[in-house]
Specification:
Blueprint (H helix, E strand, L loop, with lengths): L1 H6 L15 H12 L4 E5 L4 E4 L1 H7 L9 H4 L5 H9 L4 E10 L2 E13 L5 E10 L1 H23 L3 E10 L2 E11 L2 H6 L9 H4 L4 H14 L3 E7 L4 E10 L6 E8 L1 H75 L5 H25 L8 E3 L2 H15 L3 E6 L7 E3 L1 H17 L5 E12 L1 H7 L4 E10 L6 H4 L19 H11 L3 E7 L3 E9 L24 E5 L3 H13 L3 E5 L2 H9 L6 E5 L8 H11 L4 E6 L16 E5 L4 H14 L1
Parallel strand pairs: 12-14, 18-19, 18-20, 20-21, 21-22
Antiparallel strand pairs: 1-2, 1-5, 3-4, 4-5, 6-7, 6-10, 8-9, 9-10, 11-13, 14-15, 15-17, 16-17
Helix pairs in contact: 10-11, 12-13, 13-16, 18-19
Pfam family, one: HATPase_c
EC number: 2.7.13.3
InterPro entries: CheY-like_superfamily, HATPase_C_sf, HATPase_dom, His_kinase_dom, HisK_dim/P_dom, HisK_dim/P_sf, PAS-like_dom_sf, PAS_4
Length: 673
């Protein structure tokens, strides 16, 4: 419309060209054009009309530029509006009817005088608010209300319409009765409810009624229920539905007084209360007994675990401490011939202790565990030997390994824990001895087989544990994977084992199935998806004595444990690396900020002083992008390491580690860089 005004011929409107318009007209026209609502400007003695694009859209007509205002916007109050505006009065008119494209429409008007530099009124600015939709909605609602009213007055049941309101308790926390029939008072016992708010009528029970009908308003789902209106002592049977559209925020309620029926039911209910109370007491007593039993089972499991750990760790510590004592004695005697044998014994015990620690951390999900492409058969030799030692001599343990077994992407520690759990269950099912068979295989599952197994069709690797024990009946089979459910006698199991196996299988994108016949034994099979890539192979660590010259490489070691720093720096020094030590993250960052050359950062994850190892690494990368980082940790803080998601050029080595593993890892990381 700005372009149309600028290009228009204003001769017939008794106005000069826009370039010659007075300042007051230009300002008013500018305000009109930028207004987001329909706006008219009637100027001069002829009331020549200017309007914006919104006004043209509201009228549904081509522009009426230059025409007298009463013609451009034909409303009954047009002449009065202009006259009052020219007298300097601001005028508000509501519900003004007009014709748009042959149909009736309505608007609210605000007219303001426009004065020139001398304060003389030269025009009238008219803002319009189109309320046609609201007026039509109001009319439709009134028609609906008339129909409802006719129904209301002829019904025997109580019937009302409520409309939700916002209140001090929050949005839609109150409602007002906007319609109610004569039967409302007869059934509810409250007269003259129209216009009353719920919280003014029954403040003590308002929350319950708001919750009932608020759910109907929110979901649109009708409800049928019974509830006592405490204020009058009436028991009501109610049904409720939302009145559409939802924007009305209205709900209709139909109800009957069923107090007499409730009194009859109360007599029967009183007869049952004593019995129900006794049943409740019995259930509570049973729950207390079951809780005590579960606690006893847990404590027994903890006792068995700690006892076994103490036994294993004491044996391992005896081997380590004894080896050190013998080495010290032989060195004091000058007899070095046996030192290597004692070193091997102590290192072997230390490795077994580390393996036990890692297995415990994996069991408790405290270790940073990452699935790798593994051929399960390669794990079985050591694992089967562990099972034989665990189940005792009265049970035979056989291994049936499939040839050309496919790789699968799995965490080896978790897999061993799961299979060991199954083997222990098998042992407990054969108190008089028997046979455990561990079997691996390649499986093709078609659509039907996969559906029966709860899997996607495709290729899977299976690992099964079967026994010749007592078996499990069909009813029990349906519950064996439930947490805390156990088939073992009281005090001999916590009921967690199979549920943990199930959770591990599902986390590995596989499944677990159990097959059993009473008196014939049980088989539990893990199904893990085939990995189509090659098996991951750990690079062989370089021998400690394979000293190479790395004088041009510098390693920064950050660890709060002096012994660890000493061992790491001494080992790297033997290989020719230059080493810099720092006891905490702040000291390490000061070294990095000092400009000295650093090719690799080795940092513990848990550090004192407010900066953990991951924060140190991130700050180091900010100072030196691409810097290689090796995290070393005795308790792999998964959250600190972002749950295993570390950046390229960062790796993790878990304490305790073999020095050869450390130097081999460092050598590989620097070669790859």
């Amino acid at each position: 419309m700005g372009a149309a005004i600028a290009a228009g011929d204003w001769t017939d409107a008794a106005l000069p060209p826009p370039s010659a318009w007075p300042a007051a007209l230009k300002v008013a026209a500018g305000m009109m054009l930028v207004s987001p609502i329909p706006t008219f400007l009637a100027w001069g003695e002829t009331a020549a009309t200017l309007h914006n694009d919104a006004a043209r859209a509201m009228l549904g007509l081509p522009d009426a530029l230059g025409r007298p205002f009463v013609e451009a916007f034909p409303i009954a109050q047009g002449a009065e509006l202009l006259a009052r505006g020219r007298l300097g009065e601001s005028v508000v008119l509501e519900g003004v009817p007009f014709i748009r494209l042959g149909q009736e429409a309505w608007c609210n008007l605000l007219a303001s005088p426009v004065r020139d530099e001398d304060g003389v009124v030269r025009g009238v600015l008219v803002h319009c608010n189109d309320i046609t939709t609201r007026v039509l909605d109001d009319r439709a609602r009134l028609a609906d209300e008339r129909r409802y009213r006719a129904l209301f007055e002829s019904m025997d049941e109580g019937f009302c319409v409520i409309e939700f309101l916002d209140g001090p308790h929050g949005p839609n926390s109150d409602y007002i009765h906007i319609m109610a029939n004569a039967a409302y008072e007869r059934h509810a016992g409250i007269p003259n409810v129209v216009g009353q708010k719920l919280r003014e009528m029954v403040p003590d029970e308002a929350d319950a009624w708001v919750a009932r009908y608020g759910a109907v308003l929110r979901t649109g789902e009708p409800i049928r229920f019974e509830q006592e209106l405490v204020a009058t002592g009436r028991h009501l049977s109610l049904s409720s539905f939302r009145i559409e559209p939802p924007e009305l925020k209205q709900v209709a309620v139909l109800f009957q007084d069923v107090t007499d029926r409730k009194r009859t039911e109360a007599a029967l209910r009183h007869l049952n209360e004593t019995l129900e109370a006794r049943i409740a007491e019995a259930l509570e007593e049973r729950e207390r007994t079951e809780e005590a039993l579960r606690q006893a089972q847990k404590m027994e499991a903890v006792g068995q675990l700690t006892g076994g750990l103490a036994h294993d760790f004491n044996n391992l510590l005896a081997g380590i401490s004894g080896a050190f004592e013998m080495i010290g004695a032989r060195l004091a005697q000058g007899r070095t011939g046996d030192v290597e044998r004692y070193l091997a014994a102590g290192q072997g015990a230390a490795r077994r202790a580390a393996a036990l620690t890692h297995r415990l951390l994996a069991f408790s999900r405290r270790q940073t565990l990452a699935p790798k492409a593994v051929i399960i058969n390669r794990l079985m030799a050591d694992f089967v030997e562990l099972v034989r030692r665990t189940v005792g001599p009265s049970i035979e343990v056989d291994m049936v390994a499939a040839t050309a077994l496919w790789p699968t992407l799995v965490d080896a520690n978790q897999l061993e824990n799961a299979l060991l759990n199954l083997c222990i269950n098998a042992r407990d099912a054969m108190p008089d001895g028997g046979r455990i068979t561990i079997e691996t295989g390649n499986r093709w599952l078609d659509d039907r087989s996969a559906r029966e197994q709860g899997l996607e069709p495709g290729q899977y690797v299976s690992a099964c544990v079967s026994d010749t024990g007592s078996g499990i009946d069909k009813q029990t089979l349906e519950r064996v994977f439930d947490p805390f459910f156990t088939t073992k006698p009281i005090g001999q199991g916590t009921g967690l084992g199979l549920s943990m196996v199930y959770g591990f299988a599902r986390q590995s994108n596989g499944h677990v199935r159990i097959y059993s016949e009473v008196g014939q034994g049980t088989m539990v099979c893990l199904y893990l998806p085939r990995h189509l890539g090659a098996e991951d192979e750990e690079p062989a660590p370089a021998p400690l004595d394979a000293v190479q010259s790395h004088a041009d490489r510098t390693v920064l070691v950050v660890d709060d444990e002096p012994t660890v720093r000493m061992l790491v720096t001494d080992a790297l020094g033997e290989l020719g690396y230059a080493c810099i030590e720092a006891q905490d993250g702040a000291a390490g960052l000061r070294i990095l900020q000092g400009g000295r050359r650093v090719d690799l950062l080795i940092t513990d994850v848990g550090l004192p002083g407010g900066l953990n190892g991951r924060q140190v690494a991130d700050a180091a990368r900010a100072l030196r992008p691409g810097l290689k980082v090796l995290f070393i940790t005795g308790y792999a803080e998964n959250a600190v390491l972002n749950h295993g998601h570390i950046e390229h050029g960062m790796e993790v080595l878990t304490k305790p580690f073999a020095i050869a593993d450390l130097t081999g890892r460092i050598d590989r990381m620097l070669r790859e860089g």
